[in-house]
């Protein structure tokens, strides 16, 4: 199978600020293979966007301290020259963003913006680049593409704009597409269409995709593998089925309980995760999730959990200090609709007595 | 678009009428010298002043004076044609006097505009791209100095330093040189110092304004998109950044040109350039109401017309704007 397409190893992105060192990304590792889809899930401020912008070489703040390795097709990206990165951006690795209106230039026609990206990497005439733009617009399902290429972004609807962004991103047939919250700014009905479109084009172009989202629902359908990020670190990673069926981190449980499910009864209440994401300057000691974790124990406030394989499934890793057997019992209670506090009482009280 | 322009032009007429009223009221209500006395020369007899008062129509009631003046500025109504009234001081129609001075003012304004744009814009872009660098700090420090120094101070300093008759380094023709020069080249040479003095403050304002705008623009999502497409940094900054950041400059420039065409009063006075501004200044010193009215109206006309032109231009610059 050879080396993975994208290999991120122990990536750290810290920002020096007047208030202190912001550890936006604090040692994450993941790999993406050709044609594969990785979902990166987490709350705002968990470092998911910063990490992918860093992969693109777009973390431009002068106060950023970046370490670790990012290899794309075997080539080191963090050490690459700006010129090398420029030739990779938009060509081998493309990116789409959350808000398609603000991400498109208001003064240029949509076709021109796509053609510009083509001409940045291919030695083609303006007319050829324009034709490619029209072709891409038609591919992403925009009706009358030749006419629409001649329109400005504000003349498009939200969903159409995101389609145009996707057309722009895929115009150079990239090997990797990073989609940063691609559907967050869109209507629910349009969200599904956009996700379907990304999936369809992915199989057509054999592109690897990294989807960054705060919404597990977005990645449920399309991702092969999911990494859950919290406070700059990956706290759980597994294939998608495992994340939904047998998650082993309390934060993932929280995320799952806070989205509505079709198979749950209608009067079942959603359970939000209490508290707020921690300050990335003063992370809580020990497990950084401990202030919000319903199952916290005294020892968890001192020991920093490592991302370790879960017993019985080497592809499934979790950074939780709870014993694997306890986690499984807790999850089996939670999935039947038991509230976290009750689950804690049921499972852990017995456990604590035994200790 | 045509309906929009027609509507705007109606507003222009209304606005100019309002400005006329306001100028007249200010002149009538606020204390100013008696035009008849100013006209009568040194130690005039009361009888002479009275005669002049009657000649100039100043013996009539204020409303009557105003209606007479309106007759002077409106075609067909007063029967005098549009001459913007008759100067108390010079026995001449005002409009021909203004038009005679207009080329001088246009010459002064054009040179200054070209100068300040070619300094202000590159400096603004450089400072924005290299925010916090030594170049940025020095440029913005000097800009602040130029903005803070009024033209009448800065102009006098320039004369003190460079005037070819009184300057420490007598290298440039200075005060009154424009009127004395007889060739176009000589006139241009005479304007070098005024151009620089006039352009300094504007260049500083434009540089600071563009810098701030561009810094904000470079934070926009579409700049991130442009970089993500793999465009060269040069293209990102100019095609995507400056293109968006420079549009508000058009508004600023339009209004500034309008203001300058109405006469750069301070610059023209300091350097004794026979333009509209100097004409207006002289009129103020001798309470010559028709000339003051005329120059104010003329200046106002340029300003409202330029703002109309700017608004129309905007529809071409920014595709989101439609009328």
TrEMBL record, chain A:
Membrane topology type: Peripheral membrane protein
Any GO molecular function: ATP binding
Keyword Transport on entry: yes
SMART domains attached to this UniProt entry: AAA (SM00382)
Domain called ABC transporter: residue spans: 6-256
A Gene Ontology BP annotation from the UniProt entry: peptide transport
A GO CC annotation given for this chain: plasma membrane
Subcellular locations according to the entry: Cell membrane
Keywords noted in UniProt: ATP-binding, Cell membrane, Membrane, Nucleotide-binding, Transport
Claim: Cell membrane is one of the keywords in the record: yes
SUPFAM superfamilies in the cross-refs: P-loop containing nucleoside triphosphate hydrolases (SSF52540)
PROSITE patterns in alphabetical order: ABC_TRANSPORTER_1 (PS00211), ABC_TRANSPORTER_2 (PS50893)
Family (UniProt): Belongs to the ABC transporter superfamily.
UniProt protein name: ABC transporter ATP-binding protein
Organism listed in the record: Solirubrobacter phytolaccae
From TrEMBL, chain B:
Domain ABC transmembrane type-1: 102-314
GO BP terms in the entry: transmembrane transport
Keywords, comma-separated and alphabetical: Cell membrane, Membrane, Transmembrane, Transmembrane helix, Transport
Transmembrane residue ranges: 9-30, 104-126, 138-162, 192-210, 244-266, 296-317
Membrane-related topology note: Multi-pass membrane protein
A GO-annotated cellular component: plasma membrane
Primary subcellular site in the record, as a coarse category: membrane
Location of the protein in the cell: Cell membrane
Gene3D superfamilies given in the database record: MetI-like (1.10.3720.10)
InterPro entries: BPD_transp_1_N, MetI-like, MetI-like_sf
Pfam families: BPD_transp_1 (PF00528), BPD_transp_1_N (PF19300)
Family affiliation: Belongs to the binding-protein-dependent transport system permease family.
Protein known as: ABC transporter permease
Native source organism of the sequence: Solirubrobacter phytolaccae
